[in-house]
Specification:
The structure holds two protein chains of two kinds. Chain A is of the alpha/beta class. Chain A has 19 helices and 17 strands. In chain A, 46% of the residues are buried. Helix content of chain B is 30%, strand content 27%. About 2% of the residues of chain B have low confidence. Classes of the chains: A alpha/beta, B alpha/beta. The interface between A and B is large, with 107 and 113 residues.
């Protein structure tokens, strides 16, 4: 990352952001990545702040004054952009029919301005978002395709990109030739058929040889209207649809937009509603770098769906409750609940079915969260199980889970008369869950009857039930594990520290690393707890939850590790190994 | 996850940024087992590298053990491999599967191809933006292809990919592809499916799935994955529609805040916009769009928000907030398409619960226009609907609601029917248009209301609905009761069956349909009079429960007092004040209640009177006492 070419204001802004993020507790490496400054610069800025306050953070004046150097003068750039977005070059009296580096140079001459050097033009283009790129593999494929038609055609790779220049909302249509030469035009809205036909007509008119189009981001049907239009041109246009579409390279996207971390931390400083422990973030809906404000991202759609489900439950249930397991899925579910009922506090309590064998860190986290959020927390323990001394070591995971979790949950639901319980199960967790409904019905005996589940159409959920029957509602059914982590990352949702790597005492037992969390764990002959750098991918009862060796100590590292890992999430859960189809059986019995 | 692992390893921040901006495409795959549907889904999961090593190892082992591909990877096993899953016997069988590529996240609704197809497919399709219809290149367009396409068009999916699969088994022949495509287009035109993309492929061999097939150089179109990654998501179309927000929940954390929470079904909204609340018709202006992330300057279809209005407007769950100038229609009778989803058949005239948007009402199918043979699209006459049958019906509900035709807005035009006894979801449907020209008429809010008018007269307005056999004594009793009420200074009006038929209803005869209309008009008039503050007495045979229930439904709780004049038929026939029983016995009158047409006695009438052998004054005393007990008659 070469920041030397940046104007001083931009650099200062980055330096200030770097300091804010450092103060907010981010690591130097993370800040460096977020604001795109080198690590020594981040450290220097932070030190300067500590020594002399905010003024000291700013750069000393550099050699030339801003704007006088190689960078395009701001007013000139605005004029050029206005010309480019509103017109084709020939409409301005220039010889070219589409914009290109030549056309830009001609414009400068026409305006009586000195023509900037060629290589600067590339940088301006990048600033406008005009830097179509493909992954290396795709690029190789593209070149091969171009070569295959090059003997009698001029091949052009065509696509469209959203413009990123701040003051102009526009879309760029581009055609890139086999030697990388770019032609482009701009339009106000995402390009439609008319925009493309006009563009191709102009492109074809600039070339002596017939043009072959390699299309990405738009699709044609053989024999369709557009195909017929192409055949009707003289000479006819030929085309191939590409499977790949252009990406805005990170460098281009960020040169004119603040990086996301910066935006978020601004909101962080702004204000915090007193009742909420969830740190406010810039809303996803209005994130400035959202590529198209009219298309919700997958996370926005998932969030809206989950909120919709929660509100339906609250509107139709008599006495709802949220099952809180303290894990990451619970954390996301709870965060969504805070959003669904904002500014009210969610109108239901949290229920933790405590097996008494959770990690100590989980209990601590649970109590802090409930206190911070101002929600009622009900902790239920199966006292009969405690009296009988049920534990995972002597009774095994199956009996322990059945009595301390499944039975305990039924007890709690009956005791408090809850008719709908939110759970954090996801359909991608396991094959048998792929068919689970969002509203899952349980008989008065808490049994799940596979033959008696209701179809769910559109976003209409049927929450009617007879007295005694209950519903488990799964608002995050359609989230995947990656979605959960991404959302935790974007929304800065607090999670139990056990997810992060740290030196912890573990023993290896039956091929699984088990953490020795308290003195109740009986060690077998020869077992000596060792300190290892480990973390947990899922959290449950500590004797039943396998740790993985890891150095991932930040959220991004966890996500990275999760994506690169080669085994699925539930590998670490002892419970799933007990017998084939064990999840299915547990569900019928009332376990989630 | 090899295809993205470089970026993940080198720059996780850039990868997350990319993932953050992915859009979501939900699609459904239609086809039977033989078309290679499971293989296709398995292939997409595999190609998107969404499988972990332990899953891959299991796949390899399973392929060797039970696979059908001679030891090669059998992708179908990824989707329906587990015996446990196959045997778990869920009746409504839609499995949702997830994968993502560099550009998009996908949710696939996977429905099995065998029995229960209609119900499952309609369920899976209801949330899909796009449908993939699989065609086996060896067999071309089949009956089931037509059925799948019909269901896709029925549920309003605009984009269809015709996946012409198993091209490897027809020698990758372009002629075969063209022929199937032409066949399909001819058929799809009848259904109004327009956006069709046909892709020749082999899911088994991987041709045109993620990379251009080397075997089919003649095909220049997109690969399947390429198309799925770039096709415009349907969600964008919803922005162009009129603004609609069905209110889910009224958020009132304290006296200073009153917000209306819901998911925007269609359109765009900004603070300052003038809105109309439906069906009440009240208007106001958007003050704020509240979310936990801060107020929004603009919210679009698909977002879950909370609206705060400038004025104190009475709004509750089930109401629809619309743009003032482009409101939804308000109606209580519709033509609709209905898909029946349970074993017990649908009977016209039976009452069901209907959930549409966030409102639940009582609905009755009044008439089946025709049912549709899903294989041939033929229209057939029908008296009832069996499981998995689809019909065009007339639907009547117990109170007016705001709605849009399903084609315009899915969320305010799609509904489910719920059984009132079992609470099961038993049907799903799509409102097509309002009947009886009731659309475009919006309720005008008036300030002087029923309560005000009633208070002026010092009474609680209501309807005293007399029902019973001809000659039971309804008119006589009603007449006496009205006299007694008048003596107490009550303002009343008696609607008598014969009198009404001399004026308002003189165009109606005695066919079943005319009788229903007769009662509907009387009920509507009675409702107006109650609104005017009167105590209304009606004396009609009104033999059918459904009509009386309809009349009751027009009024508010407690306003409809059903008085069952329970005179045995022998007594009534003996009285025969108008000589009608004798005529009926001689066959001169058809459809005479009690003789050749049934009388459905009320089950829970508020007042039941037996007049046989009793003094009329005594009976009226008794009725007055009951009215006092019911709180209708409050002594001044």
């Amino acid at each position: 990352m070469d920041a030397r070419n940046l104007p001083a204001e931009e650099l200062n802004e980055r330096r200030r952001e770097a300091v804010r993020l450092r103060l907010a507790g981010m690591t130097v490496a993370a800040v460096s990545a977020a604001v795109r400054l080198s690590a020594p610069t981040v450290i220097a800025a932070h030190k300067a702040y500590l020594a002399g306050g905010w003024d000291a953070v700013l750069l000393r004046r550099r050699g030339r004054s801003a704007g006088s150097g190689r960078k395009l003068d701001a007013s000139v750039e605005r004029r050029l952009l206005t010309a480019m977005v509103g017109h084709t070059p020939d409409a301005l009296g220039l010889p070219q029919r589409l914009w290109s580096d030549e056309a830009i140079a001609a414009w400068f001459v026409q305006q009586g301005l000195p023509v900037p050097p060629r290589r600067s033009l590339g940088r301006y283009r990048a600033g406008w978002g005009l830097q179509p790129a493909l992954s290396d593999d795709d690029d190789r494929q593209l070149h091969a395709l171009m070569k295959s038609v090059a003997h009698d055609h001029d091949p052009f790779w065509c696509g469209s990109l959203p413009g990123t220049a701040a003051e102009h909302r526009h879309w760029l249509l581009f055609a890139r030739g086999s030697r990388g030469q770019l032609h482009w035009s701009a339009c106000q809205n995402p390009p439609d058929t008319d925009d493309w036909t006009r563009f191709w007509q102009r492109l074809a008119a600039e070339r002596k040889r017939p043009v072959h189009l390699l299309l990405s981001g738009l699709t044609l049907t053989p024999g369709g209207e557009l195909d017929r239009w192409m055949s009707a041109q003289t000479p006819p246009l030929s085309w191939t649809a590409l499977p790949m579409s252009p990406t805005v390279t990170p460098a281009a996207a960020q040169s004119s937009n603040p990086p996301p971390a910066v935006t978020r931390s601004n909101a962080h400083v702004a204000a915090a509603p007193h009742h909420s422990a969830i740190k406010p973030r810039a809303p996803m809906q209005t994130t400035p770098e959202a590529i198209d404000p009219d298309t919700l991202t997958h996370l926005q759609r998932l969030e809206a769906e989950s909120i919709h489900i929660m509100r339906e439950v609250v509107a139709e249930a008599e006495n709802p409750v949220m099952l809180y397991s303290i894990g990451k899925d619970s954390a996301v579910m709870l965060h969504l609940a805070m959003k669904a009922f904002y500014p009210a506090v969610p109108p239901f309590p949290l229920l933790h079915v405590d097996t008494t064998w959770k990690f100590k860190a989980m209990y601590q986290f649970r109590d802090e969260m409930a206190k911070k959020l101002g929600m009622d927390l009900i902790v239920h323990i199966n006292q009969e199980g405690v009296a009988k001394g049920i534990n995972p070591f002597t009774h095994g995971s199956a009996i322990h889970t059945d009595i301390m979790k499944t039975e305990a949950l039924k007890q709690a639901l009956d005791k408090y008369g809850f008719d709908v319980a939110f759970g954090g199960a996801r359909r991608d967790e396991e094959k048998s869950r792929a068919k689970e409904r969002v509203f899952s019905f349980r008989t008065a005996q808490h049994r799940w009857d596979p033959k008696n589940q209701r179809p769910e159409l559109w976003n209409l959920y049927n929450a009617r039930k007879h007295k005694g029957e209950s519903i488990r509602a799964f608002p995050i059914s359609n989230w995947t594990e990656l979605d959960i982590w991404q959302y935790i990352y974007l929304q800065n949702i607090p999670i139990v520290p056990l997810y992060f790597s740290a030196p912890r005492p573990v023993v290896e037992r039956d091929g699984t690393l088990i953490m020795v969390d308290d003195e109740r764990m009986p060690l077998r002959a020869g077992e000596v707890p060792q300190m290892k750098s480990v973390r947990f991918r899922t959290l449950g009862c500590y004797p039943l939850t396998g740790a993985v060796e890891s150095n991932a100590s930040s959220l991004t590292e966890i996500i990275q590790e999760m994506l690169l890992t080669k085994t699925s999430e539930r590998q670490g859960r002892v419970i799933d190994h007990d017998s084939a189809g064990s999840m299915e059986k547990k569900k019928q019995e009332g376990y989630f | 996850m090899a295809h993205v692992s470089d970026l993940i390893a080198q720059d996780i921040g850039a990868y997350l940024k990319q993932h953050e901006h992915k859009s979501l495409l939900r699609f459904i795959t239609c086809g039977s087992v033989d078309d290679g549907k499971s293989t296709l889904i398995g292939r997409l999961l595999y190609e998107s590298k969404m499988l972990f090593e332990d899953q891959l190892a299991a796949l390899e082992a399973d392929s060797k053990k039970v696979g059908t591909q001679g030891g090669d990877l059998d992708f179908a096993l990824l989707v329906d491999g587990l015996a446990a899953e196959r045997e778990q016997g869920i009746t409504i069988d839609v499995a949702y599967r997830f994968f993502s590529t560099d550009r998009r996240k996908f949710i696939v609704a996977d429905t099995p191809g065998h029995e229960q197809y209609t119900r499952n497919m309609v369920t899976g399709a209801s949330t899909a933006d796009l449908a993939i219809i699989l065609v086996d290149a060896r067999h071309g367009v089949q009956t089931q292809t037509r059925r799948h396409s019909f269901l896709v068009s029925l549920i309003g999916i605009k984009r269809v990919v015709v996946a012409i699969n198993k091209m490897d088994l027809v020698g990758y022949s372009e002629a075969t592809f063209r022929r199937i495509l032409d066949d399909y287009r001819a058929f799809a035109a009848q259904l109004g499916l327009e956006d069709i993309v046909a892709i020749p492929m082999s899911a088994l061999k991987g041709d045109n799935i993620t990379s251009q097939s080397e075997q089919m150089g003649w095909y220049h179109g997109p690969t399947l994955m390429g198309y799925l990654e770039t096709v415009e998501v349907d969600q964008k179309r919803r922005l162009k529609g009129p603004f609609r927000l069905p209110v889910q929940w009224v958020n009132r954390p304290n006296l200073d805040f009153r917000g209306f929470a819901g998911t925007i079904a269609s359109g765009v909204i900004e603070p300052g916009a003038a809105i109309r609340v439906q069906p009440s018709g009240r208007t106001s202006t958007i003050k704020r769009i509240v979310t936990a992330d801060g107020d929004l300057p603009r919210a679009i279809a698909g977002q879950s928000v909370t609206l705060v209005l400038e004025d104190e407007v009475d709004i509750s769950r089930g109401d629809v907030i619309s743009h003032k100038d482009t409101p939804a229609e308000v109606a209580d009778q519709f033509e609709a398409t209905l898909v029946w989803m349970q074993d017990e058949p649908m009977m016209p005239g039976r009452a069901y619960l209907m959930k549409i948007g966030t409102r639940t009402v009582t609905a009755t199918v009044t008439d089946i226009k025709h049912k549709v043979n899903v294989n041939t699209l033929e229209h057939l006459a029908a008296k009832q609907l069996a499981l998995n049958e689809i019909a065009q019906v007339k639907l009547s509900i117990d109170r007016p609601i705001a709605f849009d035709p399903y084609e315009s807005v899915r969320e305010t035009g799609g509904f489910i029917l719920i059984d009132r006894i079992s609470n099961a979801t038993i049907g799903a449907g799509m409102l097509r248009f309002a009947l009886r020209r009731s659309h475009n008429i919006h309720m005008q809010h008036v300030d002087v209301d029923k309560a005000t008018r009633g208070a002026m007269k010092g009474q609680k307005p209501c309807v005293l609905w007399f029902t019973g056999l001809s000659g039971a004594g309804k008119s006589t009793l009603a007449n006496q009761l009205e006299k007694r009420l008048n003596a107490l200074g009550r303002h009343t009006y008696l609607l008598d069956g014969d009198n009404v038929r001399h004026g308002l209803n003189k165009d109606l005869g005695f066919t079943e349909a005319d009788r229903v209309e007769n009662i509907r008009r009387v009920a509507e008039v009675a409702k107006l009079m109650v609104d005017a503050g009167l105590i209304v007495l009606t004396a009609f045979i009104s033999p059918f429960r459904s009509e009386r229930r309809m009349a009751r439904g027009l009024l508010e709780d407690g306003e409809f007092i059903e008085i069952f004049v329970d005179t045995p038929i022998a007594v009534a026939e003996e009285r025969d004040p108008k000589g009608l029983y004798k005529k009926a016995r001689r066959g001169e009158i058809k459809n005479f209640t009690g003789i050749d047409s049934p009388y459905e006695a009320p089950e829970n009438a508020e007042i039941r009177i037996d007049t046989s052998g009793r003094d009329i004054e005594q009976t009226v005393d008794e009725m007055m006492q009951r009215l006092r007990d019911l709180g209708i008659l409050i002594d001044a």
